[in-house]
UniProtKB/TrEMBL annotation:
Keywords: Membrane, Transmembrane, Transmembrane helix, Transport
Protein topology in the membrane: Multi-pass membrane protein
Subcellular localization: Membrane
Protein name: Glycerol uptake facilitator protein
UniProt-recorded Gene Ontology molecular function terms: glycerol channel activity
Transmembrane segments: 24-48, 68-92, 113-133, 182-202, 214-235, 268-290
PANTHER family: AQUAPORIN OR AQUAGLYCEROPORIN RELATED, AQUAPORIN-9
Family listed: Belongs to the MIP/aquaporin (TC 1.A.8) family.
NCBIfam families with a match to the protein in the record: MIP
């Protein structure tokens, strides 16, 4: 398919759109699409499939690891297409942790950190609102069916399961402690920035043919498969905070704000904000110290990039 470019229309506001306003618009839309696909796939797995009769029961979710793979791959494609949409304008941060890390180590202007982050949170909020608009009947059907089951904990008539469509919460294995989930978010986001730094580094094994967004999506899938269950792998403050704010307005109550379930955990909402911001900076600093500096030194010394030794195939002699 050949590239198609929309005709440029001149008029008032053109200069503004070419500057910070245009960049924020791209971050808003890219993050909105990220949440539409990401929260959308969770809504499918948790509420829509059971409500439509495509699951074993009206409350059956996560019978096997394949159910989790549906979500991890859904989020991978969500990131991929969000980056493709906004990448030509801003490079597609779509994540305050990425924006902060790039300001710390990539000379991204500090004056743009807050506007980018606000645009990302608002985009995530709008994306979550659209997911709710599309799936609220299925969400309410799931919560109604779950309420009839013994032992189900409801907060404002909603369950943790349907809340997980919008934002994250910690595993019961932590018994209410915030330190385990915080560490989980730091490690997961450090891995994300480590991978992003490698993918976009022209000095390294650069991804070609405009496949960078797809590879970054693969990295998100890998993090979800390897680190997802402990705390829902938010690894993005906007991805959690924007939908969490919407969920609070949509009636999820303390489940969303401040992120509490009686007897399980309390005031959790700060963890998927602080953890990713710390982890993102750690990830990009580690990359620069252990990989970036090596590549810089090699370039200064004029050392050629060493290609892996190739084995020449020969015909076997009888």
């Amino acid at each position: 398919m050949s590239a198609v470019t929309a005709p440029l229309k001149t008029g008032l506001g053109l200069k503004r759109l070419g500057g910070l306003w245009g960049e924020c618009a791209a971050e808003f839309l890219g993050t909105c699409v990220l949440i539409l696909f990401g929260d959308g796939v969770v809504a499918m797995a948790v509420a829509a499939l059971p409500a439509s009769g495509r699951a074993e029961t009206s409350t059956t979710i996560f019978l096997a690891s394949g159910d989790w793979l549906l979500i991890t791959w859904g989020w991978a494609f969500a990131v991929c297409f969000g980056v493709y949409i906004a990448g030509g304008v801003t490079g597609a941060h779509l994540n305050p942790a990425v924006t902060l890390a790039f300001a710390v180590r990539r000379k991204f202007p500090w004056r743009k950190v807050l506007p980018y982050s606000l645009a990302q949170v608002v985009g995530a909020f709008v994306g979550a609102a659209l997911v709710w608009w599309n799936y609220h009947d299925s969400i309410n059907a799931y919560d109604h069916a779950a309420a009839a089951k013994a032992g189900t904990v409801l907060v404002n008539g909603h369950t943790n399961a349907t809340f997980s469509i919008f934002a994250t919460f910690p595993s019961g294995a932590f018994h209410g402690s915030m330190w385990g989930p915080l560490l989980d978010q730091i490690i997961g986001t450090a891995l994300l920035l480590l991978c992003i730094a490698a993918v976009v580094d022209a000095r390294n094994t650069i991804v070609k043919a405009n496949l960078g967004p797809l590879v970054i999506g693969f990295a998100v899938a890998a993090i979800g498969m390897s680190f997802g269950a402990n705390a829902g792998y938010a690894i993005n403050p906007a991805r959690d905070l924007g939908p969490r704010l919407f969920a609070g307005l949509a009636g999820f109550g303390k489940l969303a704000l401040p992120g509490s379930v009686p007897g399980s955990f309390s005031n959790y909402m700060w963890v998927p904000i602080v953890g990713p911001l710390i982890g993102g900076v750690i990830g990009i600093v580690v990359y620069d110290l252990l990989i970036g500096k090596v590549l810089d030194v090699r370039a200064q010394l004029g050392e050629p990039h060493e290609e892996p030794e190739k084995v020449t195939e020969t015909d076997d002699e009888d």
